[in-house]
Amino acid sequence: MFGKGHNTKDGESGAVTVFLILILAVMFGFIAVFIDYARIAALHVQTERLTHAAVRSVMSAYDPTLQQEYGLFAYGEGGGEQIMVKVLNDSARRTARTETLPLMNMKLDSSSLQMERELGKYAIFNEQIREEMKYKAPVDFTFEVLEKLKPLSQNMKEASHTVDLLKRLQKLYDRREAKLDDMLEKQRKAGAYMEEVRKRIIKQRGTYMPNQYIWDPLEVVADIAAQYKHYVHVYEDNKKSVDDVKIMQMEKYARRARAALDRLRQIMVQAGEEHDKLLLEAKEPLSEARQINEEMRKVIAQYKQRAANAGYDEVSAAPTPSGAGSNADPSVGSARQKAEDLLISDKEFEQWEAEIEKQRTSINTANNRITSMMRTLSFYTDPFLNADMLKQEVASTLKEIDKYLNAYAWVGPANVLDGEAKMMDTRRGPDKERKKMEKEAKNKLKQAYRIIEVLSKSKQSAEQFQNLERYYN
To answer: What pTM did the predictor assign?
Structure first.
C-alpha cells in the first residue's frame, strides 16, 4: 500500500520536470531567435552607417580649387572605389580583444560605386548654386553692406556732430546778429538827429545861399546870412530918411532871426541828449553780442572735446574681408571745423566800440562849430559885419555837419555804418541763402496746406483720401 503511493509521487514529479524542460526549451528557442533577429537588425544598421561613412569619405574628395573659386562641388581626380573599399575594410576589421562575445562577425564581401548627379547637368549645377548662395549670399550681402557703411561711419559721425553743433549755434548766431543790427539801428537813429539840426540851418542839401530881401520868409539860420546884406542896405537908407515901414521891416527881420536861432538852439539841445542816449544804448547790444559770441566759442570748444559716438565707432572697428579702412572724408570734418568761421574776433568788437565813441566825438566837433556860428550870427543887427563873411561862416559849419552826416546818416561810399552793414551782410551770405530757402519752403508748405484744405472740403476728394488712408493702414 505504501509502495504504490510512492510510485505515484515519483511519476508526478517527473512529469513536472519534463514540463519545465519543455518550457525552458521554448523560451531558449524564442530568445535565440530574437537574439539572431537583433544581430541581423544591428548588422543592417551598422552596414548602413558604414555605407554612409564610406560615401562621405568619397564625397570628401571633391575638387578644392573648384569649390573655393566657384563654390561648386565636383568629384576630384582620386579613385572613389579605392576610398570606399578602404573605409569599409577598416570599419569591418575585427579588433584583437580577448574575453569578448562577438555579436556581429562581418566582413566585406563586395562593394560597388556608381557616380550620379553629374555637375554637367543644368539642374544639378543650378541646385548647387542655389545651395551655395542660400548660405553665402546673406553673408556676402552683409559684408558688402558693412564694406559700404564702414567708410561712411566716420562721415556719419562727423555729420551727426556737425548737425548737433550747428543746431546749437544757429540760435546763438541769430541772437548775436540781431543784437548787432540793433546796435547799427541805434547809431543810425542817433545820426538822423544831426540831420534835423541841419534842417534848422538850411533847407536844401547843399551850401548855396543866394541873397534875399528882408521881407522874404526867414525860417532857417542860413536866411539870416542871406538877408543880412539887404538889411544893411535898408538900415543905411533909413539913416538917410527915417521910414516907419523900413523900421518895421528891420524889426521883423530881427525878430525872425532871433526865433530862427532859438529854434536851432532847442533842436541842438534835444539832438545832443538823444544822440548821447542812443549811442550809450548802442553799447548795450554790442556788449550782449560779444557775450553771445563767447558762448558760441564755448559751444564749439565743447564739441571739439565731445566723446565719440560708440555706435559709429563699432562699425568703423568691425573687421571686413577686404580689411578696408574707415577714414572720414576730410570735407565732412572740415564742416565742423569751419564752425569757427561763425565767430567774430575781439578786434572787430573793439573796432565797433571805438566807432561808437568816434561818432560821439564827431558830433561834439560839429556842435562846437554850430555854437561858434550862432555866436557870430547873433550880431545879425550889427550893420558893420561882412555879409560874405556870415555866409562863409554858415557854409563852413554846414561842411562840418555834412562830414558827420556823410559818415553816419546819408547813404554813400563814405558812410561808416553802411560799410559795417555791408561787411556783416558779406559774412551772413550763406545764412541769408538759408533763410531764403526756409522762406520758400514755408511758402510751399502754405500752398500745400491750402490744397489739402480745398480737397478736404470736397466730398469726392475726402472719399479718395479715406481710401488712400485705408490702403496705407
So the answer is: 0.59
